[in-house]
Each structure stands twice: as structure tokens, then as C-alpha cells.
Design brief:
mainly beta; four-stranded antiparallel beta sheet; 10 strands
């Protein structure tokens, strides 16, 4: 499958896969901003927009190495996973909450874009749902 993307600035870096088995495309920082008045919110700009095909969704995910080499710091994406709908054509940005030094510099990989199928679903209201072994058991109901 081919997916179109657009560089919004000459400094934009083409998203890449680290290996043949990589699920996500690495995204690279072109610029960043910090808002210390708002929980040390860090915004990382990629200057990339993408044309997600209809029937698919793009998921913006933090890199798994986020927890490496940052003792005492617990950065996290503010919205956990970013959902990029197939009709969105704006810039891919990642926003983190972090108390401390900036996580990434210009040119660093700041996250991953994973493109997955997203079937059309029609919700149907019902008075009853099928029963399962788990039932309504919530958090921790299947063990720790």
C-alpha cells in the first residue's frame, strides 16, 4: 500500500522504519515549544502531514525507548495515543507532559505513526447484550 505524505517545511525529515519488521514509522522533530505554565507541556512539531487512506486510522504512539536513560523523569504523551483520522490533513504533532529537561532535540525521533485498518461500524442500541464468562467484571477482575 502506498500512502502520500507532505513535507510542510524544508527541514522536515521523511518518516522512516527502523527495520523491516517495524510496525511504525519514526517521526522526527523539526521544532519544539514548551509551555511551563501548563504542566510543562512540550509540543514537538514534525512538519509532516499525511493522507491516511479511508478505512484506516493513524495512531501516534510514543517511542518505547521513552523510559530509557531518563532517571527520575516520567514523561508521557498527554493524550496517551493520538488518533489521526483519514480525513485529517494537518501537521502531525506530539505533546508530552514532562517536568525537567526537554525530551527531544531537533532531528530526534519523537514518536511513531502506526497505520491500521479501521472498519466501518454501525452501533445498534439493544436492551440486552450476550453473556460472557467475564461478564461485567472490570479492572483487575481477570487477575493482576
Amino acid at each position: 500500500m502506498q500512502v502520500k505524505f507532505k513535507k510542510l517545511h524544508p527541514d522536515a525529515i521523511t518518516p522512516t522504519k527502523a527495520t523491516d519488521g517495524s510496525a511504525g514509522f519514526d517521526l522526527y522533530v523539526t521544532a519544539y515549544a514548551i509551555d511551563e505554565k501548563n504542566n510543562n507541556k512540550e509540543t514537538y512539531f514534525t512538519d509532516i502531514s499525511i493522507e491516511i487512506p479511508k478505512g484506516y486510522v493513524g495512531l501516534l504512539c510514543p517511542r518505547s525507548s521513552l523510559c530509557k536513560g531518563r532517571p527520575g523523569r516520567f514523561p508521557r504523551m498527554i493524550n496517551s495515543i493520538g488518533v489521526i483520522d483519514s480525513d485529517y490533513r494537518g501537521e502531525l504533532r506530539m505533546v508530552f507532559e514532562n517536568k525537567g529537561k526537554m525530551l527531544y532535540d531537533k532531528g530526534d525521533r519523537c514518536g511513531q505513526l502506526v497505520i491500521v485498518p479501521c472498519p466501518e461500524i454501525e452501533l445498534i442500541e439493544s436492551d440486552e447484550l450476550s453473556t460472557t464468562e467475564r461478564g461485567t467484571g472490570g479492572f483487575g477482575s481477570t487477575g493482576i
